[in-house]
Amino acid sequence: MPPEPTRTRREPIFNLPPVIALSVAVLVAIHALRMLQSDAADFELILEWAVIPARWSAAYGGASLDEVLRALRAIAPEEALAPLQALAQYVLADGEGRPWTAITYAFLHGSWAHVLINSIWLAAFGTPIARRCGGPRLLILAGASAVGGALLYAYVNPLQILPMIGASAAVSGMMAAASWFMFAPGHWLPEGRVSEPHERQRESLSRIVRNRQVLIFLGVWFAANYVFAFVQPFGATDASIAWEAHIGGFLVGLALFPLLDPLPVHRGRKSA
């Protein structure tokens, strides 16, 4: 009797940690549900949950409606001035700051392309962090990076009346966190295999700034932010890119990750 053939184990196409799969599903589901609303209802939702820097400046910084209107007259094209002034009066009418929008804006996106791109980057950079640190620490990192992005955006654009949305600041924080260990040297594990990137000890800051791979990675990231924020090639975006939020999220992720990392910093020179 011939031996029974050995069955090969099938790996899933998308082997994502549960926290990443759930996060992507939530972002996609929220955008899909918004598509079922009327334009007017969706606009109200955006105004309620998005970051609007002028609202924060009026509530917490003492900025007046007149200051916001003067800023609009200085920069807005004539054909857009009237609707923007009406928007400013509507948004600032109740005087509320809505501080929770520093988090909630990250769950909203401007288009399917926007939410799908952020989901792809979330899966790419969130997965090694989730495997390394676990779901709760990943969510802390993402939330703090989102807040950092919102704060820097509002600081640079204090009288901006247009809403800012998207998970890009949170994703930028994950990218920064991953740069601590993604390019660290591998080492042999007791089970006889070379460590995966998420299993490697993070580099020290002095090693990071001397690591050519990290510098190239960061250089490409900053260049991409510049291109899409100021050049917008081939009509690739249908709205302006909040590069300030990306930078804010990145800096928070870079600073916070060593405090969340369960592995010690790499100090030796051994590599595989």
TrEMBL record:
Chief location category: membrane
Keyword Protease in record: yes
GO cellular component: membrane
Pfam assignment, any one: Rhomboid
Positions of transmembrane segments: 12-33, 102-126, 138-155, 161-183, 214-235, 241-260
Any one biological process term the GO annotation gives: proteolysis
Cellular location(s): Membrane
Membrane topology according to the record: Multi-pass membrane protein
GO MF term list: serine-type endopeptidase activity
UniProt keyword list: Cell inner membrane, Cell membrane, Hydrolase, Membrane, Protease, Transmembrane, Transmembrane helix
Domain Peptidase S54 rhomboid: 97-257
Protein name: Rhomboid family intramembrane serine protease
